[in-house]
Task: structure prediction
Amino acid sequence: MEGTNTHMGVLEEIKNRKLFFDGGMGSLLQARGLAPGELPETWNIRHPEVLREIHLEYLQAGCDVVTTNTFGANGLKYGADGEFSLEKVVTAAVENARAAIETYGREISDRQKLGKYIALDMGPTGKLLKPLGDLAFEDAYDLYRQVVLAGVKAGADLVLVETMSDSYEAKAAVLAAKENCDLPVFATMIFDEKGKLLTGGNVASTVALLEGLGVDALGINCGLGPVQMKGILKDILEAASVPVIVNPNAGLPRSENGKTVYDIDADTFAAVMEEIADMGANALGGCCGTTPEHIRKTVERCKYKPQILPTEKNRTVVSSYAQAVVIGRSPVIIGERINPTGKSKFKQALRDHNLEYILREGVTQQDHGAHILDVNVGLPEINEPEMMEEVVKELQSIIDLPLQIDTSDIAAMERAMRIYNGKPLINSVNGKEESMRAVFPLVKKYGGVVVALTLDEKGIPETAEGRVAIAKKIYRTAAEYGIRPKDILIDALCLTVSSDSKGALTTLETLRRVRDELHGKTILGVSNISFGLPQREIINAAFFTMAMANGLNAAIINPNSEAMMRAYYSFRALADLDPQCGEYIAMYSGQTAGLGQSAVRNPAVGSSSGSGAGEGMSAGNGSGGSTAADLSLSDSIARGLKERAQAAVRELLNSMDSLTIINSEMIPALDRVGKGFEKGTVFLPQLLMSAEAAKAAFEIIKDHMTVTGEARQKKGEIILATVKGDIHDIGKNIVKVLLENYDFEVIDLGKDVPPEVIAQTARERHVELVGLSALMTTTVPSMEATIRLLRKETPWVKVMVGGAVLTEEYARTIDADRYCRDAMASVNYAEKVLGGKENA
Amino acid sequence: MKRNIRETLRYLGYKNQAADPAVMELIEGSWDDLERAASPKSFCREYGLTVNGEHIDAGVFQTDSRSLARNLKGCERVILLAASLGASVDVLIQRYSKLQVSRAVVLQAAAAACLEDYCDSVNEKLKEDYLKKGLYLRPRFSPGYGDFSLECQKAILQSLEAAKRVGITLTDSLLMAPSKSVTAVIGVSRLPGNCTVKGCEACDKMDCVYRR
Result:
């Protein structure tokens, strides 16, 4: 994509002068008769003269970039069976823009010579992406791809992705543009006054994502007036390395006699836009409520301002959907626990498709202070690309930390990078030609910071000199792919010190030299150092401190290890990275217990609160029974005290066999609570807390039984699913927790599950009982369709149903076998259908 | 943000019973989470209205509904409202739905209480503003209440540009996403009438388990 391409005109132009976008379209169309509820894009075909007139007015006002009237044009609104096809609507829109430019330019037909460009406008789909909504990422991509193909064919000069309030949807749109045309791609997002996207991202995370994807310019539009945008612009300018666009509304909206009006006039607008131009915005225009008058006055004031492009920011940044993590002088902790190597339970979880186990590993590490999570799901007998995609999707739906995609399987790497909602860390590339050829194109395309191992075809150099040489080679080759040094983390490699006593020193020297000679950033898998030694934590923690002191920027460690985190917090305090030792004091001043204790980091940031979730919940929970220390197992379960139940079961296992504990302590406690729930003396939260306490106790018994070789008979398999179209699955998850405690094997198919998937699973695994959940009247028909299919394909299956809108009678009319008004009712029905049977 | 523990308990099924300390701790903890995650937003706009028998024409949508017609009796205009706690609350609920369902259930209840209180505060402000103009507001009424069709959500959200302004979208099966969202109509009348702002009592689904 070199400058010879005619499409590059706009990119050349923006280097030399301020570029001006047009202003609002919707309100101008309304003034000319667009009816409420009428799709604005139909006017491209019905009233082309109106569109041409508006475009022309903007051109005469001085705008350089005409945006096509295609904001809401997508396959959802312009389907194949509608009055107008998507292609027609988009083609007409581009035609109208072109016609207006031709009228404006009179005899000058070359748009580039004229300095006027057509931007193919792409707004949000109007749907929320999965898992919060029901539009799959790839479907969103497809909707945008159709628009891009039509727009390019019609002759657009650039693609403008705008008014995006969800980073994931923005990624789908930008990716669709980048993959299906070679036009410049600009993207502007809608932030609120606090600088947040509606889905939670901020300026830093958004800039990281968009620049990673390779947009040519980025910025902000809509939502706010120019006054409120100034603060956000400042943040963008601090983060961005590409030209910045500012297209505000005409102030803030208010309702006046049923009409939306904006609070500042064209003069005020232009005056503030002048300040925005002075701050460093490179392209200026307007959004809702702005008119040719706003643009004319803005152009007048800003036209001859010097164009100063943002400088290249030399920051190493990765991001999640919600936040950016800067890898710099203060070391960053990358949690290493999501990795099956040497962990038999983790391997089993992967084989069993037990994602909950993996998610807990993630949450626990976050609670202990990880900044980034490494994700490795490589196991010979599983389909790694599929598993990697699924695990990344699941993790990013519940955890706001950036992820490190850790795999040597290039297909798995690409699938994860494609659906990742942010700019990931990639682990890894190395100095081998083959590795660089495979990995660098992906990093260039999807964006990311890549871990580069200092080894090559000749193996791992024994000297720092050798490793630095490979680092140089990697930087050089990366540059050929357009990847900057800031997006590379050099892994200085640490080998076990037990086999080479100079190994650690070589690693430390490499760290220093990469920092001092190459001005690069470094990473280490710290725990490798102690392989083969006893009490590995002792060596690990000491080496970790040494590595940080020698310039280590990112450490792949176990954040659940208190020794490692102590080293981390101490280093920060000692290296002037923790003002007044504030974080250190907050961490340890309350810790009166001995140094053997593990500390859970205070959940201080955003949604990263985790008190109570997962295994790391040693703080926060359980104090409801401060006198609980001597409660029996059954009482601990009945009262929902998880920690105490775990302690009690450990004690009992010394004197009792597993099955006796289950039958004489646990089941009676569950029954007692269940009965209370049915009678109305125990409420749902208690029922569930008790179920969770029992589940935690069962986990311990299960581990014990694996050791002793005892086996617990399962009562049979049950499929649970929230039906197609329904995206609420708490009800289903409640039933799942309870059924599992009563020894049923639950096959959880998740939410929004098509009837075919449910029927197929029931047939393949010959399941006898299926539980379906639907929350709304609008999704009951899909429950009915599922039952119909099950009756046809798996006539032996019994179906129990539940959900807010269902009743006994309703359940009968859709042919369910049993209506379960609550979770206990499903347990009772399951006992009736499967109880006492041998495992199928 | 006021912590409405009483309403949280009511959504969890408690009537007048006391919750035990472990549950109370869970409720307080869930409100901590909620306060960090929630970012309430709303948008409203006024439209002309004609009510003819059970037929209602609010400009951007037309529908037949006996309960809504009763609610809007004597009104000449109507305010359409969309409000949401935002997507981060859903992320939170989703997280615990997978890992600790007891907390998800409590969060769900706390978020419902929080959203209702937020709508009340928006509604109260509107009521004051309109009163200054000598106009009275009817209790807000949402699609799904009584026989007021959920279908009308589509037009309400579209006319308010709710996806862009408040972040509310609809799934194919007309569920709002994020889930902690509300659409409502508020009748505007020149005559004083039943002006309570509470949504729940305005509904005539008498068998609703969550009825106050």
Chain B has one domain: 5-202. DSSP finds seven helices and nine strands in chain B. Residues 101-132 of chain B form the longest helix (32 residues).
